[in-house]
Amino acid sequence: MEGRAAVWSTIGVGLDVTGAIALASVAMWLVPRRDRFGSAGTAMVCALLLTALWSLAAAAASASTSLAADFIPSLAESARNLAWLVVIYRLFASDGRHASLAPIRPVILSLGFVEVMHLAVDYGFTRIVIDEKVLSIAFEFGVMFRLLVTVGGLVLAHNLYAGAPRESRASLRWPATGLAILWAFDLNLYTIAYLAGNWPEEIAALRGLSAAALAGCVAIGGAKNRDDLRLRPSRAVTFQTFSLLVIGVYLVAMVAVAQWLSYAGGNFARLVELAFLTLGSALALVVLPSRRVRAWFKVILAKHFFQHRYDYREEWLRFTRTMGSDQSAPLGERVVQSIADVFESPAGLLLTPGEHGELTLAARWNWREIEVPAVALPVEDIGYFESTGYIADLDDMRAGRESAATAPGWLVDHPRAWALIPLVHYERLVGMVVLARPQLVRKFDWEDFDLLRVIGQQVASYLSENASQLALAESARFEDFNRRIAFVMHDIKNLASQFSLLARNAELHAEKPAFRADMLVTLRNSSDKLTALLARLSRYGSGGVDRVEQVAAAAVLALVMERFRGQPQVVLAESRDVAITASRHSLEQVLVHLVQNAIDASEPGSPVFLSLAVEGMNARFEVLDSGAGMSADFVRNRLFKPFVSTKSGGFGIGAFEARELVRAMRGRLDVESREGLGSRFTVRLPLAAHSDIYPNYAEKVA
């Protein structure tokens, strides 16, 4: 035991000296900066120095076993307490509360009187010789005096900060915290000393820590950046700390009651002690893990420890995690969960507008047992929620306290239904969320409404964007269908023009053998084109062609020139006998379209030149005219855009289809044009001699 006492004495001396050094250093640092505490600056410097002297006195008398054994530490402690009471009074005076709060001065004077009386009694007992029983009574009286001062000091420190105006709290926060630490430690120390009947040397050895903490708090309070050093614990840390504190209090209470029962003695007392411990442990195992108790703890902490109920940063991060993390879950379920998490609701529903504006069930989240009718909320009951964004408490509707909004009977009759939250996007209702009753039910307040409106608007934008994407996807499918039909109509229009011309000429030249031979060729070509058209219907939108094979480029060029035999302005400028990899019919279609466009853009009689040359590994087909030409903006933004045409009655898909066919043959279509000068269309396709570089050319493209 003596060795253990020596260890604690050494620890106490080290901590007391450390605390004294910290206090003295802060006091000297604060001297030129004492105006930062207003009229209390000088008093605070003196209080710090007296507290440093008290720590040194405690270190010198660390071997003492009672308060009456040495008068010096007691005198130093009383001087310390009196000095800090003066500091508190001056801090109250800094914002005028010493005059507006009448009890402040009497309380401080009363605590000062208790300290002086304690000093007198303590001094008297050090001068006379008394027996052990009287000494024990004197010890208890001395501890009681100290407890009165520490409790009074804690009350004053609390009122100093809690009752201060908002603009004054920055300068009072840290000094009040330091005094609270100092006197809270003393309160525990003297409480244990009173209950134990002797001086707890182990705990007393740690008093230097409270002195060092006081020095640190005062230093922070005197710093320029003290506002930036504000302690802002997260809600998770606060909740866990509070939970540990509750568990600690519970354990202390268990030990105290068990100790009290053990003093009664006897077998019956022992039985009661064991029964109490068993019952208390079972109660803790049942109550502490309860979600309802945890929810109650969180509500109490948010109400009394924080300015706002919600940690908005944490709520927003949780919301984004819920909406973006599990993409396998449907969007509707994630919307419900993101709002339910705000109130720890276990389940919910999402209602969205149907075809006629009524709300229907769109998603469930953990709520399979509730039966939702086909029309969850009729159109006539939606207008109020849409115009006001009103968040309905279904308990108020059941009690008849809400008459403006109307909830459907199936919700009002269901006991788990708790809240109805509208999702409004640009003044349009895109959905409503129904929440199930949480473990701890409470009334909605302004913070709930504000947070729910923000989250509701965000999830409403998600739902609206998702609906727009679905509509765009559906529109894209219809657009693809319409594009195929437009391509078909374009090709049929060309064939119809050929048949019409053929019919008119047949009336005039049907008897001529040459005409009949030409008519048979035209009919055969038209039949082939119709067959190819039917084959292409399945590949529009995929960029494919019928078949890519080795083709004689000059032969295709000859077919094109044959098509325009009656057009003398079409001139073959150059031709080369080369083999290319392409689709014969698709290449002919592309060149015919380009030549016909060149003729349409040129003045009558103005030549249109068609040529074929070799350029590196490609064959280059050129269609050159000197017509009206096109602007750079038109070429860049409109020429190859489907359904945009400069021709009256045109479909606007010829150039787009030509480019897509050339791309499908692994070629390239380029355009050069100047307004008033003409245009040059260049088609480049790979030579057959280099087809090994393009291994997929010989394959049939579906």
From TrEMBL:
Coiled-coil stretches: none
Enzyme Commission number, as recorded: 2.7.13.3
Reactions catalysed, as given in the entry: ATP + protein L-histidine = ADP + protein N-phospho-L-histidine
Gene Ontology cellular component terms for the protein in this record: plasma membrane
InterPro entries, per the entry: GAF, GAF-like_dom_sf, HATPase_C_sf, HATPase_dom, His_kinase_dom, Sig_transdc_His_kin-like_C, XrtA/PrsK
GO MF annotations, alphabetized: histidine phosphotransfer kinase activity; phosphorelay sensor kinase activity
Pfam families: GAF (PF01590), HATPase_c (PF02518)
Domain Histidine kinase, chain residue ranges per copy: 487-689
SMART domains per UniProt: HATPase_c
Membrane-spanning parts: 6-31, 43-65, 141-162, 174-197, 203-221, 242-262, 268-288
Swiss-Prot/TrEMBL keywords: Kinase, Membrane, Transferase, Transmembrane, Transmembrane helix
Protein name, as recorded: histidine kinase
Organism of this sequence: Novosphingobium guangzhouense
Highest classification ranks of the organism: Bacteria, Pseudomonadati, Pseudomonadota, Alphaproteobacteria, Sphingomonadales
